[in-house]
Amino acid sequence: MATFLYRLGRFSFRRRALVAAVWAAVLVALGLGALTLSGQLSNSVTIPGTESQRAIDQLTEKFPQANAGGATARVVIEAPAGTTVTDAKGKAAVEALVGQLKTAPKVAAVVDPFQAQAISPDQRVALAQVSYGAKAYELTDDDRQALLDTANAGRAAGFTIEFGGDAVQGVPATGATEGLGVAVAAVVLVITFGSLLAAGIPLLTALIGVGTGMAGIFFASGFLELNSNTPVLALMIGLAVGIDYALFIVSRYRHELGIGRDPEEAAGRAAGTAGSAVVFAGLTVIIALAGLTVVGIPFLGQMGVAAAVTVAIAVLIALTLLPAILGFAGSRVAGDRIRLRRKPVETTHGERWARFVDRRRIPVLLVALAGMALVALPALSMQLGLPNDSTAAPESTQRKAYEIASRSFGEGSNGPLLVVVDVSGSANRQAALGQAAADIQKLPDVAAVTPPRLNQAGDTALLTVIPKSGPSSTETENLVAAIRTESGNLDAKLSVTGQTAANIDVSEKLSDAMLPYLALIVGLAFVLLMLVFRSVVVPLKATIGFLGSVAATFGAVVAVFQWGWLTDLLGVESTGPIMSMLPILLIGVLFGLAMDYQVFLVTRMREEHVHGAEPQEAMVTGFRHGARVVVAAALIMISVFAGFILAESSLIQSIGFALAFGVLVDAFVVRMTLVPAVMSLLGRGAWWLPKWLDRILPDVDVEGEKLTKHLDEPEERELVGASR
């Protein structure tokens, strides 16, 4: 592989105009496709096969007028102080609003608060329910704005009118604040390279890669139903790995120039050596992300595949477009710093740290492990859930509607449960239906049960159950489970659906999938690292360190987003259950990134060991050569991910924080502290591999050692001949 990449790098360098033109054509074509053929992104997080989804399918077939699966909105109307919604002025305002809601685009039905008796005990608040004939992701911004505009007249008359429900939720968007991470990354690159030109190249190639990937995602949205968080995850990962992969290759290119090679040869060797590591590192990220498809959750699989494709594009750009750009830049990428390398090399910070860890390996190991364990403790109380109006921004209309409804009707009014009663097999359908409603009313945590609505055939009814507890509470989860078990005691079949029940089902499915996916990733990590390092101990140490990083990150996420620690400092406006999809996403992404650092740091240690260096000296030398680039790469990733903490969406905030903290722990605590400590402690034992396994394992030569040896032999022969 290293030889092929060497030739590819030299070809891209020589035919730089052609390579640049091809990538420009790809970007333009996908961009035009995204502009003309893109579709609406989805907020849906349903999973086929869950009971809530089966109930929706049943209603769609037998009770289509119920608009099951369509978007819903809750409209809260609060009268001015000293008045009520039941006096003449209040009643007129409510009726006028209901009339306007019925004329809003794509609205199928509106439940009048007076007919449904949805009036608060103090008669100051009314609650209207709006059902749409379209799903939430099918609503446009104009549709949502038309819904919100229905409140204008009532607000002008002094009424407080707020909206909740999935019909109000827009597509998460990224803004200028996320660009702060890129700006910090640029500063890190300038400090690392000491050259604006060298620093600008990784940023340029990363932006081209992300632009290509994002255009492809939006182009695909015209043909596929994609989750609204899909482009956000791809943007995060694409930016981070795109900059890092280019950083590794440009660093090697500058090194080759610094030892006197001509630019074309330097580009080829950089692609063959650092490029080989980039291919392996990118492959681990791609496999981890694409592996999300095996957990059986469609929207999560889509997010993983889209991000994996963006990473693949970043790898291809690093191996082709980057050498072409280096061809345009030539030796100017070296800058002034290269010429200073002829001076005596002083001891670097990385070498000093490695020697300190070597001398104090046991205390360093114990302190690092104790610190990670302490940070991981909050993870024991992790509560998973999906976003609802209670986790919206405090100033949003969804959050205000949630608070008013909770105060006036109880928290359960924000998460009604839809119970489908199938009485087709009952001898006395009316009696079975009445018994079902009565039994549900007796269950704990039930505030109210609305009168049943029958379909035209009279074999399916729909009940609305209002819990006492909020939609994210454990009590509501228990209530859903209790209603579903009531079928065994009735002459009817009960199914529970609605947004609250669907969120509970999705969270349970995601929680159940986490451990199998973690096992898949850990097993994959062990096999891949055993191929690279030809060792059993190094992969074992790497995967254990990865698990420690994941545990510590889970603990930090719980402390911030569930417990509310440091929310003011980080700009987190709402707390609650951790997003159900976050743990699996974090495991997949952090695995790939952790293996990046493992490869770039430990391959040089292995190279020194293979060349005969003593174990401790091999660790120190390898660390000295790899530490600077790994630190720069980690700081860049942390900066890019941390920029997303400033986003408006709590899901995007939590993903950005989790990835930034995870990279911080894995890079600086695991890879740059635990790894050298364990390598020093184990000595030669770190490279142990059974002979029978050594014979059957393929030699992937990630560090490009064979390529370097092959290329250097002719030079050595020429030097020997010249000396004679």
Tell me what the structure shows:
With 724 residues, the protein is α+β, with helices and mostly antiparallel strands. It has helices at 2-14, 16-37, 51-62, 88-102, 141-149, 152-156, 179-193, 196-220, 230-258, 263-290, 298-319, 321-329, 349-359, 361-376, 397-409, 429-442, 474-485, 499-533, 537-562, 567-570, 582-610, 615-643, 650-682, 691-696, 705-723, and strands at 72-78, 107-111, 125-132, 160-164, 384-385, 417-422, 446-449, 453-454, 460-467, 493-497, 578-579. Strands 6, 7, 8, 9 and 10 form a five-stranded antiparallel beta sheet that branches. A four-stranded antiparallel beta sheet has the order 2-3-1-4, with helices on both faces. Strands 5-11 form a two-stranded parallel ribbon. The longest helix is centred in the last third of the chain and has 35 residues, at 499-533. The chain is elongated.
Helical percentage = 55-70%
How big is the Rg? 30 Å
Per DSSP E runs of 2 or more residues, the count of β-strands stands at 11
Q: Summarize the main sheet.
A: 5 strands, antiparallel
Overall morphology: elongated
Average pLDDT rating: 83
> Which ranges are low-confidence, i.e. pLDDT below 50, for 5 or more consecutive residues?
337-345, 716-724
Percentage of β-strand residues: 5-15%
The N- and C-terminal alpha carbons lie at a distance of 36 Å
SS-based class: alpha+beta
Count of alpha/pi helices: 25
How would you summarize what this structure contains?
The protein has 724 residues and is an alpha+beta fold. It has 25 helices and eleven strands.
How are the elements arranged and paired?
Elements: H1 2-14, H2 16-37, H3 51-62, E1 72-78, H4 88-102, E2 107-111, E3 125-132, H5 141-149, H6 152-156, E4 160-164, H7 179-193, H8 196-220, H9 230-258, H10 263-290, H11 298-319, H12 321-329, H13 349-359, H14 361-376, E5 384-385, H15 397-409, E6 417-422, H16 429-442, E7 446-449, E8 453-454, E9 460-467, H17 474-485, E10 493-497, H18 499-533, H19 537-562, H20 567-570, E11 578-579, H21 582-610, H22 615-643, H23 650-682, H24 691-696, H25 705-723
Helix pairs in contact: 1-2, 1-10, 1-12, 2-8, 2-12, 7-8, 7-9, 7-22, 8-9, 8-11, 8-12, 9-10, 9-11, 9-22, 10-11, 10-21, 13-22, 14-19, 14-23, 18-19, 18-21, 19-21, 19-23, 21-22, 21-23, 22-23
